[in-house]
Input
Amino acid sequence: MTEKYDKIIIGSGLGGLLSGVILSRKGYRVLVLEKNHQIGGSLQSFNRKGCTFSTGMHYMGSLDEGQTLNKIFKHFNLFDGIKYKRLDENGFDIFNIGGKEYNYPIGYENLKKYLYGLFPDEKIAIDNYFSEIINTIDTQDIYLLKSTQNRSEKVGKYLELNAWDHIKSITSNTELQQVLSALNFVYAGVKEKSPFYIHALINNHFISSSYRVVGSSSQIATKLANEIIENGGNICTNNGVENLVIENDIVTGVRTTDGSEYSADHIISNIHPASTMDLINEGDIKKSFKNRMKRKENTLSAFAVHIKLKKDSFKYINANYNYYKKNDVWYASYYDEKNWPEHYFMHCGTPENGSEYTNCIGLLTHMKFEEVSQWKDLPINKRGKDYIDFKNKKAEQLIQLVDKTFPQIKDNIVCYNVSTPLTYNDYLGTPNGSMYGTLRDYKMPIGSYISPRTKIKNLFFTGQNLNLHGMLGVSLSAILTCGEFVGTNNLLKEINAIK
Ligand SMILES: Cc1cc2nc3c(=O)[nH]c(=O)nc-3n(C[C@H](O)[C@H](O)[C@H](O)COP(=O)(O)OP(=O)(O)OC[C@H]3O[C@@H](n4cnc5c(N)ncnc54)[C@H](O)[C@@H]3O)c2cc1C
Output
């Protein structure tokens, strides 16, 4: 006997959980199937010797009153019982570019004023740049939580603009070009490919206001999961989906790793479209669609070191610190394992009990999957001494680079934990441990776009691969996917109605 649900969601990442809440609120019986022991995907956290580390959600934007994510968080009750710390008004992100530091203050006017001060001859270019960001955002109705019926005609123009080329066309000042590009690590930007609209959405999101979760980001996953269960849904962990059962071009259910079968009217896949295609038998879906999903280029993977520090040894920084060895912030474009590391993104755990010190810091940078692929077929924790030596060697190299700017870290380390592209591949299931899923290319605006609908009538996609990754992008993807059942504009109305 297979258990019957209205909707089955494959994967309990942010997109899967938000979809589960939306649909269970509307009375649908929902089942979320998760391959891991812990729910949340990139929202997962772990604890080492009293330090809690968030693995893939270090900060988020537009959480000030009236801003987009603030409205979405209210709709999903994500302010209840979870605290968020607003980052430094004068610099939520600090960028060290080739040895010179720059800040990004919160708010357009503050950032403009700061840039006018640094580049007094570039006032017109700076104004033009921010106008272009605002114009681009104005074409993206869903990001403004506006009705999707009157999609702006200007959208096309911005989809086909390259971010780097467009910034260069606005100013010939090479230093300013770098400063205006500085947030591109947050979308794993590639000079030759990344579209300007992705740059604009990310910049608008974080410049509007920036916050980090106090404690672990897994609180968000737990909160959403609890509501699904309260609404009558089920969440089943340690139970990955192995196969979609398809009859006469309709998915009737799924088979899972524990040998169970579940059926449903609709299946929503919160995993990468290429991984979804791997769950479908040959001949059960159009070959051209399968190949298109499988061939998608993905963003680069990551390498992270999560460090526990001695008590009161390192003052909390209420900002992210982004280091670029070269005068070039487009690190994903020139990443070279021979010169690694040339970049890091450092974030601090929010201190408890009002202390001015943090005990936990995280370092994050890019790494290619190929550098660890020799260990990919070995089970987790059984990859042998070579892999452990590789991880430790790379972690020490990264810590050495950090030591140049923060000499108080190296000698105060109690212990550290390392994540490689294999870790992201194991715990998120993204192909080759890709950080943010599919890479958008301005030369292929249509090819870069993934619709919630698939070539199978009752199979849908949600999550970071649809429109945009991250807290905002994935929330909006969940709205668009669930909008297929309950109407996107109805959901937007509900969200906008909350005060
Ligand atoms: C290192 C890192 C740092 C980041 N930092 C930030 C940040 O600071 N701010 C921000 O906004 N965004 C950040 N992001 C991006 C953000 O975390 C993601 O875009 C977002 O969480 C992705 O959510 P998702 O729903 O698409 O799926 P995912 O989080 O990828 O979850 C997919 C889930 O599906 C499960 N799964 C896979 N295969 C199966 C299967 N066959 N059966 C069942 N379950 C399966 C996985 O185990 C996983 O739980 C970061 C990402 C990374 C990797």
